[in-house]
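Re: [ENG-882] Designed sequences occasionally contain unexpected residues at chain ends

Forwarding the minimal case from QA. Structure tokens:
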């Protein structure tokens, strides 16, 4: 990734945070970055694509981490633990990206919304696969409906951006451990929970 591309993303995040997506023009971004319009359009087709890339940065991170967790561990409860840690960690690594995207995503064009939906759907599929495999091997309670369970996990963790502060009293890893404790006590079978602890 080029230095200018990084600079454009960083400065646009600051501008979008302060002025909103519609309150910022490509000219504003170019001036803030001390570059040319040519420099901007070399890296991004439009302001829309820039907003999409802001989202893509953090969704790709959690997708890659989920795939790595599946490869790294052969047991669903450890795959799930690793996925949850990465899903929470994203709010520390890409906090500004997530806040800006959640405030401004309604302005995205349909084509970018579709790409985002595909990646989010893929992440949800991986999460459901892990839960189903955990149910099959006796680590996760079989009576829990897979879709409701996965949506509950995502709903809980995805709200983190609303309250997380980097300088807060708990580190991101401590927050992740708290989530995992709450989720695992609801999900895991008695035997799996005893082994996990």
């Amino acid at each position: 990734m080029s230095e200018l591309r990084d600079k454009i993303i960083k400065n646009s995040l600051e501008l979008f945070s302060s002025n909103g997506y519609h309150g910022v023009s490509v000219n504003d971004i170019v001036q803030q970055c001390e570059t040319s319009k040519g420099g901007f359009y070399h890296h991004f087709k439009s302001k829309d694509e820039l907003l999409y890339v802001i989202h893509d940065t953090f969704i790709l991170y959690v997708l890659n981490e989920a795939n790595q967790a599946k490869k790294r561990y052969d047991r669903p409860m450890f795959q799930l633990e690793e996925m949850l840690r990465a899903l929470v960690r994203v709010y520390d690594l890409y906090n500004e990206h997530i806040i800006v995207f959640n405030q401004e995503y309604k302005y995205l064009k349909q084509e970018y919304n579709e790409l985002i939906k595909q990646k989010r759907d893929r992440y949800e599929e991986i999460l459901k696969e892990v839960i189903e495999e955990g149910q099959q091997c006796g680590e996760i309670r079989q009576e829990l409906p897979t879709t409701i369970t996965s949506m509950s996990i995502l709903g809980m963790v995805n709200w983190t951006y609303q309250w997380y502060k980097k300088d807060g009293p708990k580190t991101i890893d401590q927050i992740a451990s708290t989530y995992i404790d709450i989720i695992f006590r609801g999900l895991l079978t008695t035997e799996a929970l005893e082994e996990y602890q």
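QA comment: On inspection the terminal residues look reasonable. The CA atoms of residues 134 and 140 lie 5 Å apart. Proposing we downgrade this to a documentation issue.
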